[in-house]
Amino acid sequence: MAQRGLRLPSHVTLYLQFGTTDVRDYCIRQGYMETFHAAGARILQPSCGACANCGPGSSERAGQVTVSSINRNFPGRSGPGQVWLASPPTVAASAMAGELLSFHDLQRRHG
């Protein structure tokens, strides 16, 4: 993403929250954090978050749309707005594109 000069559109906020400290530490060792930061992502430490409607990443108003890799959805689970469930690659691609988009389609657009 960032290696190709892609950055988040100004109307998009991308939060990345690790499920465990082991996953966070792995991402640090692999150098993924630099890519996430360069793309404009906001990194959250492992804890409960948007999937439980606590913390950044939850919608704040009914008109907001969230694309998330949480594992289940029901009205109000992640705030008052709409929530689309997607794979982590689709979430990242959608954030970078500013619209719901697969990672494969993002790759085709940006070669």
UniProtKB/TrEMBL annotation:
Keywords: Iron, Iron-sulfur, Lyase, Metal-binding. Heterodimer of LeuC and LeuD. GO terms for molecular function: iron-sulfur cluster binding; lyase activity; metal ion binding. GO terms for biological process: oxoacid metabolic process. It holds the Pfam family Aconitase. This is Aconitase/3-isopropylmalate dehydratase large subunit alpha/beta/alpha domain-containing protein. The lineage of its organism: Bacteria, Pseudomonadati, Pseudomonadota, Betaproteobacteria, Burkholderiales. Residues 3-98 form the Aconitase/3-isopropylmalate dehydratase large subunit alpha/beta/alpha domain. InterPro entries: Acnase/IPM_dHydase_lsu_aba_1/3, Acoase/IPM_deHydtase_lsu_aba, Aconitase_4Fe-4S_dom, IPM_dehydratase_rel_enz.
